[in-house]
Amino acid sequence: MDNDWNDNQPIYRQLRDRVIAMILEGVLNEGDPLPSVRNVAAEFRVNPLTVLKAYQQLADEQIVEKRRGMGMYINTGARKLLLAAERQRFLKEQWPAIYATIQRLGLVPADLLSPSPTTER
Amino acid sequence: MDNDWNDNQPIYRQLRDRVIAMILEGVLNEGDPLPSVRNVAAEFRVNPLTVLKAYQQLADEQIVEKRRGMGMYINTGARKLLLAAERQRFLKEQWPAIYATIQRLGLVPADLLSPSPTTER
DNA sequence: TCTAGTGTTATACATATATATAACACCAAG
DNA sequence: CTTGGTGTTATATATATGTATAACACTAGA
Fold first, then answer.
1. Residue A84 forms contact with B (CB below 8 Å)
2. Which of A44, B24, B55, B82 sits a CA distance of 20 to 30 A from A30?
């Protein structure tokens, strides 16, 4: 409900990532309909075209299926497809730069990856 | 010399990050001049204005100092300033989302910290 | 003074992103 | 058929980003 947009990334891509996150987290399951373009646009106070662009990308990636006049539905196999694709994308395209930044800043990767540093046994 | 631009980020910001990385890594030291706008533009086949925009940001952040007709020089204290500022920025603005993605994808420290990427699962 | 190297500004143009408004095409349900 | 919900398209506008070209202002050094 809040505007938590990150200026580093276009809104339509953040919307796409949001849907992907919901699928991976099980908030949305295969066969479920996506929230409608108009609803999302209203909820986040964003232009319907921006939402459509995000959804169009998901359709291009075979993650959702369009049904005329009804809405867009999450494809069967979407979760499995996503887990593999997103993992590879993250490890190849994002993590190397992130890891370099961590080292550059003198941070310890193991500390960042441990869930709660304070309650260490 | 390679074009390693990331479409997720404007070039001028990537140029800024590149300079910051060079300072943190000790490639550039306090008092050193930055590579000139024209040189960088030529080297990376980028518009001089784009480089200028990156350098202007660094000047705004008190990291470099302009000397008329001579160039831009890294301020004393820049490294210390950067370490603190970039650490905070990274931990507050970037790491939370990155960490969420890691968990969402079911990645474990072994996947991220080992030199060889894919481990059996 | 002249030259060559700095950063800087001015125009003009192209593309990507996002908005506002409105209308169209499709489908289920009344 | 009408209504209200889908996705979709069409115009027009604004801003950010990036390019191309050219010129200006300053400085060190020959």
1. no
2. A44
